[in-house]
Amino acid sequence: MSDHNEQHHIVPIRVYIAVFLTLIAMTWVTAYVSTVDLGRLNIFVALSIAIFKASLVILFFMHVKYGTKLTKMIVLAGLYWLLLLLFIAMADLWTRGWMGVPGR
Amino acid sequence: MASQVVPHEEVVTLKHHFANDEQQLDASTIGMWVFLVTEIMFFGGLFLAYFAYRQAYPAAFASASNKTNLWLGAANTTVLICSSLTMAMAVHSASLGKRTLLVLFLILTLILGGVFLGVKAYEYHDKWVHHEVPGAHFDCEGCDDAGHAPLFFSLYFGMTGLHATHMLVGFVILSIIIVQASRGKFTAKWYTPVEMFGLYWHFVDIVWIFLFPLLYLIDRSHTGLK
C or N terminus of chain B, fewer CB within 10 Å? Predict the structure, then answer.
Protein backbone atom coordinates (compact mmCIF):
# COMPACT_ATOMS: atom_id res chain seq x y z
CA MET A 1 0.00 0.00 0.00
CA SER A 2 2.76 2.39 0.95
CA ASP A 3 4.35 2.14 -2.50
CA HIS A 4 1.15 3.18 -4.24
CA ASN A 5 2.30 6.68 -5.04
CA GLU A 6 5.63 5.50 -6.43
CA GLN A 7 3.84 2.97 -8.58
CA HIS A 8 1.53 5.42 -10.30
CA HIS A 9 3.02 8.77 -11.07
CA ILE A 10 -0.04 11.00 -11.07
CA VAL A 11 0.34 13.65 -13.73
CA PRO A 12 -1.30 17.01 -12.89
CA ILE A 13 -4.35 17.85 -15.02
CA ARG A 14 -2.77 21.13 -16.21
CA VAL A 15 -0.04 19.08 -17.95
CA TYR A 16 -2.72 17.17 -19.88
CA ILE A 17 -4.50 20.39 -20.78
CA ALA A 18 -1.27 22.06 -21.96
CA VAL A 19 -0.37 19.03 -24.10
CA PHE A 20 -3.91 18.90 -25.48
CA LEU A 21 -3.94 22.60 -26.45
CA THR A 22 -0.52 22.27 -28.10
CA LEU A 23 -1.72 19.25 -30.09
CA ILE A 24 -4.84 21.09 -31.30
CA ALA A 25 -2.84 24.20 -32.21
CA MET A 26 -0.23 22.17 -34.11
CA THR A 27 -2.97 20.36 -36.03
CA TRP A 28 -4.32 23.63 -37.41
CA VAL A 29 -0.84 25.07 -37.93
CA THR A 30 0.16 22.07 -40.02
CA ALA A 31 -3.11 22.25 -41.97
CA TYR A 32 -2.51 25.94 -42.70
CA VAL A 33 1.21 25.58 -43.55
CA SER A 34 0.37 22.84 -46.05
CA THR A 35 -1.44 25.44 -48.18
CA VAL A 36 1.67 27.65 -48.37
CA ASP A 37 4.07 26.67 -51.14
CA LEU A 38 7.44 25.93 -49.49
CA GLY A 39 8.59 23.67 -52.30
CA ARG A 40 10.31 20.53 -51.06
CA LEU A 41 10.19 21.85 -47.49
CA ASN A 42 6.44 21.20 -47.21
CA ILE A 43 6.82 17.49 -46.46
CA PHE A 44 9.60 18.13 -43.94
CA VAL A 45 7.51 20.70 -42.07
CA ALA A 46 4.46 18.40 -42.11
CA LEU A 47 6.44 15.39 -40.84
CA SER A 48 8.36 17.44 -38.23
CA ILE A 49 5.07 18.69 -36.76
CA ALA A 50 3.68 15.13 -36.81
CA ILE A 51 6.77 13.79 -35.03
CA PHE A 52 6.54 16.60 -32.45
CA LYS A 53 2.85 15.83 -31.83
CA ALA A 54 3.49 12.09 -31.58
CA SER A 55 6.34 12.71 -29.10
CA LEU A 56 4.01 14.75 -26.87
CA VAL A 57 1.41 11.96 -26.90
CA ILE A 58 4.02 9.26 -26.16
CA LEU A 59 5.77 11.21 -23.38
CA PHE A 60 2.76 12.65 -21.55
CA PHE A 61 -0.49 10.88 -22.50
CA MET A 62 1.23 7.47 -22.59
CA HIS A 63 3.32 8.30 -19.48
CA VAL A 64 6.61 7.17 -21.04
CA LYS A 65 8.32 10.23 -19.50
CA TYR A 66 7.42 8.85 -16.08
CA GLY A 67 7.95 5.20 -17.04
CA THR A 68 10.73 2.77 -16.24
CA LYS A 69 14.00 2.65 -18.20
CA LEU A 70 12.96 -0.69 -19.68
CA THR A 71 9.74 0.82 -21.08
CA LYS A 72 11.76 3.65 -22.63
CA MET A 73 14.18 1.13 -24.15
CA ILE A 74 11.31 -0.83 -25.72
CA VAL A 75 9.76 2.31 -27.20
CA LEU A 76 13.11 3.47 -28.61
CA ALA A 77 13.88 0.00 -29.99
CA GLY A 78 10.52 -0.02 -31.78
CA LEU A 79 11.10 3.41 -33.32
CA TYR A 80 14.64 2.40 -34.29
CA TRP A 81 13.39 -0.66 -36.18
CA LEU A 82 10.78 1.46 -37.91
CA LEU A 83 13.50 3.88 -39.04
CA LEU A 84 15.62 0.95 -40.30
CA LEU A 85 12.65 -0.30 -42.31
CA LEU A 86 11.90 3.10 -43.83
CA PHE A 87 15.42 4.43 -44.39
CA ILE A 88 17.11 1.32 -45.79
CA ALA A 89 14.27 0.69 -48.22
CA MET A 90 14.00 4.35 -49.24
CA ALA A 91 17.80 4.75 -49.54
CA ASP A 92 17.62 2.04 -52.21
CA LEU A 93 14.72 3.66 -54.07
CA TRP A 94 16.14 7.20 -53.86
CA THR A 95 19.56 6.26 -55.25
CA ARG A 96 18.60 3.75 -57.94
CA GLY A 97 18.78 6.29 -60.75
CA TRP A 98 22.15 7.69 -59.70
CA MET A 99 24.30 5.23 -61.61
CA GLY A 100 23.71 3.42 -64.86
CA VAL A 101 23.35 -0.32 -64.78
CA PRO A 102 26.12 -1.98 -66.87
CA GLY A 103 24.75 -4.01 -69.71
CA ARG A 104 21.35 -2.40 -69.75
CA MET B 1 -7.63 -17.69 9.48
CA ALA B 2 -5.60 -15.42 7.20
CA SER B 3 -8.49 -15.02 4.76
CA GLN B 4 -10.23 -12.65 7.16
CA VAL B 5 -7.18 -10.44 7.55
CA VAL B 6 -6.35 -9.96 3.84
CA PRO B 7 -8.65 -7.37 2.23
CA HIS B 8 -10.71 -8.68 -0.66
CA GLU B 9 -9.20 -6.47 -3.35
CA GLU B 10 -5.62 -7.61 -2.65
CA VAL B 11 -6.56 -11.20 -3.29
CA VAL B 12 -8.13 -10.27 -6.61
CA THR B 13 -5.58 -7.83 -8.00
CA LEU B 14 -2.12 -9.15 -7.10
CA LYS B 15 -1.48 -12.43 -8.92
CA HIS B 16 0.54 -14.92 -6.90
CA HIS B 17 3.38 -15.10 -9.43
CA PHE B 18 4.32 -11.45 -8.90
CA ALA B 19 6.36 -10.26 -5.94
CA ASN B 20 4.39 -7.03 -5.53
CA ASP B 21 2.00 -4.60 -7.24
CA GLU B 22 4.80 -2.59 -8.78
CA GLN B 23 6.34 -5.61 -10.48
CA GLN B 24 2.93 -6.69 -11.73
CA LEU B 25 2.23 -3.26 -13.23
CA ASP B 26 5.69 -3.11 -14.84
CA ALA B 27 5.08 -6.49 -16.45
CA SER B 28 1.73 -5.34 -17.85
CA THR B 29 3.18 -2.07 -19.15
CA ILE B 30 6.12 -3.80 -20.83
CA GLY B 31 3.86 -6.43 -22.38
CA MET B 32 1.55 -3.74 -23.75
CA TRP B 33 4.45 -1.78 -25.20
CA VAL B 34 5.91 -4.87 -26.86
CA PHE B 35 2.50 -5.37 -28.49
CA LEU B 36 2.42 -1.72 -29.57
CA VAL B 37 5.90 -2.09 -31.10
CA THR B 38 4.56 -4.94 -33.26
CA GLU B 39 1.73 -2.59 -34.22
CA ILE B 40 4.26 0.11 -35.17
CA MET B 41 5.91 -2.38 -37.54
CA PHE B 42 2.49 -3.50 -38.86
CA PHE B 43 1.59 0.06 -39.86
CA GLY B 44 5.24 0.70 -40.79
CA GLY B 45 4.95 -1.59 -43.79
CA LEU B 46 2.03 0.45 -45.11
CA PHE B 47 3.90 3.71 -44.50
CA LEU B 48 6.85 2.29 -46.44
CA ALA B 49 4.54 1.34 -49.33
CA TYR B 50 3.18 4.90 -49.27
CA PHE B 51 6.67 6.50 -49.36
CA ALA B 52 7.88 4.11 -52.07
CA TYR B 53 4.95 4.74 -54.43
CA ARG B 54 4.86 8.45 -53.69
CA GLN B 55 8.52 8.63 -54.69
CA ALA B 56 7.80 6.59 -57.85
CA TYR B 57 4.68 8.53 -58.98
CA PRO B 58 4.86 12.03 -57.41
CA ALA B 59 2.49 13.69 -59.90
CA ALA B 60 -0.26 11.09 -59.42
CA PHE B 61 0.05 11.30 -55.62
CA ALA B 62 0.05 15.11 -55.61
CA SER B 63 -3.14 15.50 -57.61
CA ALA B 64 -4.92 12.50 -56.07
CA SER B 65 -4.21 13.63 -52.50
CA ASN B 66 -5.75 17.00 -53.33
CA LYS B 67 -9.07 15.15 -53.75
CA THR B 68 -9.20 14.60 -49.98
CA ASN B 69 -11.12 17.11 -47.89
CA LEU B 70 -8.64 19.13 -45.82
CA TRP B 71 -11.31 20.56 -43.50
CA LEU B 72 -12.82 17.17 -42.66
CA GLY B 73 -9.33 15.74 -42.13
CA ALA B 74 -8.30 18.54 -39.76
CA ALA B 75 -11.64 18.42 -37.91
CA ASN B 76 -11.34 14.66 -37.49
CA THR B 77 -7.79 15.02 -36.19
CA THR B 78 -9.13 17.48 -33.62
CA VAL B 79 -11.87 15.03 -32.61
CA LEU B 80 -9.34 12.23 -32.15
CA ILE B 81 -7.03 14.43 -30.07
CA CYS B 82 -10.04 15.33 -27.88
CA SER B 83 -10.72 11.62 -27.40
CA SER B 84 -7.08 11.14 -26.39
CA LEU B 85 -7.51 13.88 -23.76
CA THR B 86 -10.69 12.26 -22.39
CA MET B 87 -8.86 8.91 -22.31
CA ALA B 88 -5.94 10.46 -20.40
CA MET B 89 -8.48 12.02 -18.01
CA ALA B 90 -10.15 8.62 -17.59
CA VAL B 91 -6.83 7.07 -16.53
CA HIS B 92 -6.26 10.08 -14.26
CA SER B 93 -9.71 9.63 -12.64
CA ALA B 94 -9.05 5.92 -12.20
CA SER B 95 -5.75 6.64 -10.45
CA LEU B 96 -7.64 8.82 -7.96
CA GLY B 97 -10.34 6.16 -7.53
CA LYS B 98 -13.12 8.41 -8.85
CA ARG B 99 -15.49 5.87 -10.36
CA THR B 100 -18.18 8.22 -11.70
CA LEU B 101 -15.64 10.45 -13.44
CA LEU B 102 -13.86 7.39 -14.83
CA VAL B 103 -17.08 6.06 -16.40
CA LEU B 104 -17.97 9.53 -17.68
CA PHE B 105 -14.60 10.07 -19.39
CA LEU B 106 -14.64 6.56 -20.86
CA ILE B 107 -18.10 7.19 -22.35
CA LEU B 108 -16.91 10.55 -23.73
CA THR B 109 -13.96 8.75 -25.33
CA LEU B 110 -16.36 6.26 -26.92
CA ILE B 111 -18.60 9.06 -28.23
CA LEU B 112 -15.68 11.03 -29.71
CA GLY B 113 -14.38 7.85 -31.34
CA GLY B 114 -17.85 7.37 -32.81
CA VAL B 115 -17.85 10.92 -34.19
CA PHE B 116 -14.47 10.25 -35.83
CA LEU B 117 -15.73 7.08 -37.50
CA GLY B 118 -18.93 8.87 -38.56
CA VAL B 119 -16.92 11.58 -40.35
CA LYS B 120 -14.69 8.86 -41.84
CA ALA B 121 -17.78 7.02 -43.14
CA TYR B 122 -19.03 10.27 -44.71
CA GLU B 123 -15.66 10.74 -46.43
CA TYR B 124 -15.70 7.14 -47.71
CA HIS B 125 -19.21 7.70 -49.07
CA ASP B 126 -18.06 10.90 -50.74
CA LYS B 127 -15.19 9.03 -52.43
CA TRP B 128 -17.57 6.27 -53.53
CA VAL B 129 -19.98 8.76 -55.09
CA HIS B 130 -17.14 10.55 -56.91
CA HIS B 131 -15.75 7.29 -58.38
CA GLU B 132 -12.55 7.62 -56.37
CA VAL B 133 -12.63 4.04 -55.12
CA PRO B 134 -10.08 1.98 -57.11
CA GLY B 135 -11.80 -0.52 -59.36
CA ALA B 136 -13.79 -0.78 -62.59
CA HIS B 137 -15.55 2.56 -62.09
CA PHE B 138 -12.52 4.52 -60.94
CA ASP B 139 -12.32 7.98 -62.45
CA CYS B 140 -9.90 10.57 -61.07
CA GLU B 141 -11.22 13.67 -62.78
CA GLY B 142 -8.47 16.13 -63.71
CA CYS B 143 -5.70 14.04 -62.13
CA ASP B 144 -2.15 14.14 -63.50
CA ASP B 145 -0.84 10.69 -64.33
CA ALA B 146 -4.35 9.35 -63.70
CA GLY B 147 -3.19 5.81 -64.50
CA HIS B 148 -1.32 5.70 -61.19
CA ALA B 149 -3.89 7.62 -59.14
CA PRO B 150 -5.58 4.35 -57.98
CA LEU B 151 -2.34 3.57 -56.11
CA PHE B 152 -2.87 6.61 -53.92
CA PHE B 153 -6.49 5.73 -53.25
CA SER B 154 -5.64 2.06 -52.57
CA LEU B 155 -3.17 3.23 -49.93
CA TYR B 156 -5.68 5.80 -48.65
CA PHE B 157 -8.35 3.17 -48.12
CA GLY B 158 -5.86 0.56 -46.89
CA MET B 159 -4.27 2.82 -44.29
CA THR B 160 -7.38 4.63 -43.07
CA GLY B 161 -9.26 1.32 -43.21
CA LEU B 162 -6.70 -0.45 -41.02
CA HIS B 163 -6.77 2.55 -38.67
CA ALA B 164 -10.59 2.45 -38.53
CA THR B 165 -10.45 -1.31 -37.86
CA HIS B 166 -8.23 -0.58 -34.87
CA MET B 167 -10.79 1.92 -33.64
CA LEU B 168 -13.59 -0.65 -34.01
CA VAL B 169 -11.54 -3.15 -31.98
CA GLY B 170 -11.01 -0.31 -29.47
CA PHE B 171 -14.79 0.22 -29.28
CA VAL B 172 -15.37 -3.41 -28.26
CA ILE B 173 -12.65 -3.33 -25.59
CA LEU B 174 -13.72 0.12 -24.38
CA SER B 175 -17.34 -1.02 -24.03
CA ILE B 176 -16.24 -3.96 -21.88
CA ILE B 177 -14.09 -1.65 -19.73
CA ILE B 178 -16.98 0.81 -19.31
CA VAL B 179 -19.20 -2.01 -17.98
CA GLN B 180 -16.43 -3.22 -15.67
CA ALA B 181 -15.73 0.32 -14.44
CA SER B 182 -19.39 1.03 -13.72
CA ARG B 183 -19.55 -2.21 -11.71
CA GLY B 184 -16.64 -0.96 -9.61
CA LYS B 185 -14.02 -3.45 -10.77
CA PHE B 186 -11.26 -0.83 -10.70
CA THR B 187 -9.78 0.87 -7.65
CA ALA B 188 -7.15 3.56 -7.18
CA LYS B 189 -4.77 0.71 -6.39
CA TRP B 190 -5.50 -1.43 -9.44
CA TYR B 191 -6.88 -0.17 -12.76
CA THR B 192 -4.39 -1.77 -15.13
CA PRO B 193 -6.92 -2.58 -17.92
CA VAL B 194 -7.93 1.11 -18.08
CA GLU B 195 -4.28 2.15 -18.25
CA MET B 196 -3.35 -0.44 -20.90
CA PHE B 197 -6.37 0.39 -23.03
CA GLY B 198 -5.32 4.04 -22.74
CA LEU B 199 -1.95 3.14 -24.27
CA TYR B 200 -3.72 1.39 -27.16
CA TRP B 201 -6.07 4.33 -27.73
CA HIS B 202 -3.23 6.87 -27.75
CA PHE B 203 -1.32 4.65 -30.18
CA VAL B 204 -4.27 4.71 -32.58
CA ASP B 205 -4.27 8.51 -32.19
CA ILE B 206 -0.55 8.64 -33.09
CA VAL B 207 -1.13 6.59 -36.25
CA TRP B 208 -3.72 9.16 -37.31
CA ILE B 209 -1.33 12.03 -36.45
CA PHE B 210 0.90 10.63 -39.24
CA LEU B 211 -1.88 9.63 -41.63
CA PHE B 212 -3.37 13.14 -41.59
CA PRO B 213 -0.34 15.00 -43.06
CA LEU B 214 0.63 12.18 -45.42
CA LEU B 215 -2.82 11.63 -46.94
CA TYR B 216 -4.39 15.10 -46.68
CA LEU B 217 -1.62 17.70 -46.56
CA ILE B 218 1.20 16.68 -48.91
CA ASP B 219 1.26 18.77 -52.08
CA ARG B 220 -1.73 20.75 -50.89
CA SER B 221 -0.03 24.05 -51.74
CA HIS B 222 -0.61 23.50 -55.47
CA THR B 223 -4.36 23.95 -55.13
CA GLY B 224 -4.65 25.71 -51.77
CA LEU B 225 -7.60 25.42 -49.42
CA LYS B 226 -10.86 24.00 -50.68
Answer: N
